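Each field is set out underneath.
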Amino acid sequence: MIVTTAAEMRRIDAFTIEHCGVPAAVLMERAGNGAVAALLARFPHVRKAGVVVLAGKGNNGGDGFVVARGLKRRKIRCEVILAAGRADVREPARGKLRAWARAGGKTTTITARDLGPLQRALARSGCVVDALFGTGLTGELTGLAAEAIMLVNASGLPTVALDIPSGLDADRGVPLGVAIEAELTVAFAAPKIGTVIYPGARNAGELAVVDIGIPDAALQAVAPTTEAVLAADAAALLRGRDPESHKGSNGHVLLVAGGRGKTGAVVLASRAAARAGAGLVTAGIPAGEQQAVAARLLEEMTAPLPDDGEGGFAFPSSAAYTALLDGKSALVTGPGIGVSEARRALVAWLVTHAPLPMVVDADALNCLATAPPDGAWGAPGRPRIVTPHPGEMARLSGLTTGEVQADRIAAARRLAAARGVIVVLKGARTVVAEPDGRVAINCSGNAGLGSGGTGDVLAGVIGGLLAQGYPAADAARLGVFLHGYAADRVAARRGMIGLLASDVIEELPAATAALADVPTSA
């Protein structure tokens, strides 16, 4: 599903108006009428309880005037509270305000000195329509707008935001001081990025998308570079299994992972790779830890690698690693390896020399952060997928964790372009960024994934898909979605609290089968 920045949506609208002959007033009419349908479907009680529309002076206010008129036409009590002077309302919204007045609609203006009309309207209504600001807002809200939003949030009424909750940054998903807390956001043409990523997704609540008749030509001309990955999108990536396939044809994953005290990481990642469908899995581990790991892996193989005498990887030369890479389809490194000079050298060598598609996770990322190889890490035929959490991302990119979280998409895009890798920036609504600037926002998963080992499982899942021949970008998108989808299924049965990484692994086959049954548009 396409999602847009504010600038992309403005260009789409402009192309539609200028090159496709659709007037702005027509787009506004379609948006408002679509919002009425979504509002009534979600909150049918308003037919008796009534609605208050909080409107601003711009196009978002115009959408609100159309909503008010549509409700009145259905004989639903509605009043408009205008947070501006009538003379300040701009076209084409001004035309919609006039149409509302001609229909007999009531409009009351409010000022910072007198919010009483809004308070009284809230008290006698069953729902609020937020039509205060659209996607053009950039500065922090103060004064009348901020006070009006706080009143709406404190009212306890369900709120329907038109296009985007007022006060929310459309691109970064962060409140600009204060923002509407909606139960439903009706997106026009496409959701805005800020309503899909957190924390903005919390402000947006449920998302409904209204088709306002944007021509394909406009979308092709602007070519938005961000998508939200829903079940149908992930299902379209999923491949079936050839009835004549065998373990050799389903790929062989090699993991260079684990170490003393962290052998669980390689066990989890290995089992996840197998459950994701890899035909064969080999866990390459420090020789001294091989027996402990082999005792916990039944279907997967183990192989000893140079040991530093303390249960960690040594790197006296590349020979043992080169030999183990032979015949493998994909490589996963990082879970549980720890950080040392030898491991920094090992990770740098694997990233720059391993002739396989590769997932770089956990401690391998910390090794790269302190001893990064020069230039691009990925190359044709040996793509690299890095899977940092926000702290690891900060170390890789020279930012603070707060700076990463303030604009997750921008941070992921920069690292992907700079290093020629696919970045999987983990967290609520994980971001997958490609070197060419394309971004996918994952929409599966839940807070139950905030437990130890779930990142190791994700690395294994992506590695298992790479081994089966999925292109790296597809493996990253599908792997992230499937990981979250499995967790959602577990949480639906047993709850999020206490959800374990091993629960996700065991759910992967059933989740994959369920995803295969999801209808796609492809």
Q: What stands out?
A: The chain is about 45% helix and 15% strand. The two ends are 12 Å apart (CA to CA). The longest strand covers residues 280-286.
